[in-house]
Known about the structure:
- The protein has one domain: Response regulator (Rossmann fold, 3-Layer(aba) Sandwich), CATH 3.40.50.
- The protein is 35% helix and 18% strand.
- It has five helices and six strands; from the N terminus they run E-E-H-E-H-E-H-E-H-E-H.
- Strand 5 (93-98), helix 4 (102-109) and strand 6 (117-120) form a beta-alpha-beta unit.
- Helix 2 packs parallel to helix 3 (78-88).
- It is globular and about 35 Å long.
- The model is unreliable at 1-12, 143-153 and 155-159 (pLDDT under 50).
Amino acid sequence: MHSIPGDGIERGVSGPEQMALLVEDDPSLARLTAVWLNALGYRVETCDDGRVAAGLASRMTTPIDLLLTDVMLPGMRGPVLAGLVRIMHPAMAVLYTSGYSPELVGEVFGPYADTALLLRKPFTFDQLSFSVRQAVAHRPTARRTRIADPVPENVPDPA
């Protein structure tokens, strides 16, 4: 698990059409984080429950570029949610947040603790901005388009 410090990164980390799914069960923190994500250039869908967020993600027609989720959520833990949403949105960046102890969070992630990007609560705008940049830089390179049907073997290569 990588805890990420913040250090005054400039605003506007995403492109103009980036979508973030924010899953946070603290209403005041969710509102503030959504405002900050908007300032970073994201359109934001917000949810306070892991199961509800998974359902919302399955109905979204716009690709999710960033999943920002609390580790400990009602309905479903953040890492389980991220795994489910990644099936539907394979190129999505994931950033976890938590105010719990590093030991407890490490237990939740299990063997994947070394690969998870974690932003410790409470955090500042600059810490969020830096962490989002890190998550986006480390997101999978999966294509954002539908996976095509396999090409039959008898079709010649167009090259």
